[in-house]
DNA sequence: GTCAAGAGTCTTGACGTCGAGACACATCGA
DNA sequence: TCGATGTGTCTCGACGTCAAGACTCTTGAC
């Protein structure tokens, strides 16, 4: 592992090491970076989506519908579990997406309590364009890795994330 | 890289692959996991801190003060840059931390516009306990990695995060 | 059939964050 | 000394999320 340049996390970890020499602070070298990376990604996404006039939360919902495949329909409950927000939040999101004409609510044919949320043609077009832009941005970020770095990183992350699947 | 078990991200990526065969969706294998990991970490932290009756945002601020070293004093502006929130948010946070007796505001001696936020003994005790708990939780999560996995993961993340330091 | 328990969706109020701008003071050049 | 510009902190209104609970309909046992 080359030493390139001291980054912000290195400084934070060094500070903790100095202040709490009784602790093993190595986990911070991983998790602080995960945190910061997630934050930066948020920003990158926001700017990527802004070109197509989409908000991050809109993409969250639309992309779940998009990757479900034709006819691009899911229940609010399914959207809740896929996007990891609460039901109240999802109701609010669907309301706003419906106002903007990106989805429509349909009554479920076989459960009268149920509702199905469906992508409109405009919603489909927007989410496809956003995904194209997003992948372009993300690919450029990963270009900093050496060959083999991408799958290695994915595999390591997968192992760690797997710890939470209980 | 062993194939262990298909995880949620694998399913998401496979779905995109099927729906958009024109795109290279490999970046998702990294960034989707970063996202999910960050979310899970949030939860893990919240429960770890709950034992010491601290909120995540409180720890954010208190830990910046703690690792600054004695006398555990920073300006609101410094706290803003370290915690990556806006100034309005920081004012609000300091207000609440002051009410709870975990920090105090002092006038800066050499800049009459300025303020210095200082950890109280109670704040110091709480943040130290929280850090101890947090590292225990994080270390256990990383135990899933093989030897050498931790530094490898940290190095890869560092390269990627470095892309944003502009 | 009927009733209890469960499932799916939506409503409500509280809360934390953001972004823009206000205000006080500092700094620097003329 | 004076004004212009920069810096540090705080105020305010809008917004999105959450948690808890209300409501409607379904399911299964009796």
Question: Any overview of this molecule?
Answer:
The structure is a homodimer of 166-residue chains. Chain A is mainly alpha-helical. Chain A has one domain: Arc Repressor Mutant, subunit A, CATH 1.10.10. Chain A is built from seven helices and three strands; from the N terminus they run αααβααββαα. Chain A has helices at 8-19, 27-50, 56-67, 76-83, 87-99, 121-142, 149-162, and strands spanning 73-74, 103-107, 115-119. A three-stranded antiparallel β-sheet of chain A has the order 1-3-2. In chain A, strand 2 (103-107) and strand 3 form a beta hairpin. The mean pLDDT of chain A is 88. The interface between A and B is large, with 63 and 63 residues. The structure holds a DNA duplex (30 and 30 nucleotides). Chains A, B: InterPro entries: HTH_MarR-typ, MarR/SlyA-like, Tscrpt_reg_MarR-type_CS, WH-like_DNA-bd_sf, WH_DNA-bd_sf. Chains A, B: Keywords: DNA-binding, Transcription, Transcription regulation.
């Amino acid at each position: 592992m080359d030493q390139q340049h001291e980054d912000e996390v290195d400084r934070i970890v060094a500070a903790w090491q100095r202040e709490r020499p009784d602790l093993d602070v190595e986990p911070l070298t991983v998790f602080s970076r995960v945190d910061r990376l997630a934050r930066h990604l948020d920003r990158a996404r926001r700017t990527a989506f802004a070109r197509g006039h989409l908000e991050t939360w809109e993409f969250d919902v639309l992309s779940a519908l998009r990757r479900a495949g034709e006819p691009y329909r899911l229940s609010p409950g399914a959207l809740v579990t896929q996007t990891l927000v609460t039901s109240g939040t999802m109701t609010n999101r669907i309301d706003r997406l419906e106002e903007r004409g990106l989805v429509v609510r349909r009554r479920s044919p076989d459960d009268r309590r149920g509702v199905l949320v469906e992508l409109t043609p405009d919603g489909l077009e927007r989410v496809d364009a956003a995904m194209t832009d997003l992948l372009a941005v993300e690919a450029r970020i990963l270009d900093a890795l050496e060959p083999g770095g991408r799958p290695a990183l994915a595999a390591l992350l997968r192992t760690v994330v797997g710890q939470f699947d209980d």
